[in-house]
Specification:
This protein is an alpha/beta fold. Helices cover 33% and strands 23% of the residues. α1 links the parallel β1 and β2.
Length: 235
Amino acid sequence: MRSVLVLQHVPWERPALIGDVLTSSGLNWDLRRIVDTSDTSAIPSLDELGGIILLGGPMGALDFDAFPGLGLEAELVRLAADSEIPLFGVCLGHQIIAAALGARLHSGAASEVGIGEVTVTADDGVFGATGDRQPVLHWHHDVVDVPDGAKILASTDQTPNQAFRIGNTVFATQFHLEVDRPMLERWLAVPDMAADLDARTRSTIEADFDAAAGRMLELVTRAATDFAAAVHARD
């Protein structure tokens, strides 16, 4: 069985709930961090991959000079999309996928941090019906347009592209649907992450997270199960 490659950009970003669903779905996954290397041998061949997940991180999706591995990831995204290998992007991963496929990145265009809601903009098996509202965990400052052929699934006023899908193999969200409570607590202990929070959000984020956790878990379970089914379909 091919494994799922999970690309990590900083130590505190982990697949968490997504990884739990992949494991329960009988999939093996391999967590790697290649963001600092330009060595192409750091990436497995496409034949070895059942799917690819790109996690979040504080860097910009196009910061290739400072983080040469982002260029490798962008090329991998293009190759995977051409080969219809399932792709799943979260936050920075969402931006990397979209930009690699031709969308424009807008650095610092919208800051959303904390629990909020997105509005579903297209009927979708993961998100539900058009017009539904879904609680999510935001933690971003950059936003990205959608590549050609993509369907926007969810949006906010600040960030029109909160989630998109291309066919049955590319799915990405600007928000963090992978985070469980222990991971949130770890983020709050990371100075660079905590610095993104204003005083009000810092005082309420844990209670807000707990209140929305059930619905967010349902969303990530549907999303990761859908991705796992696409991976299994390749075997």
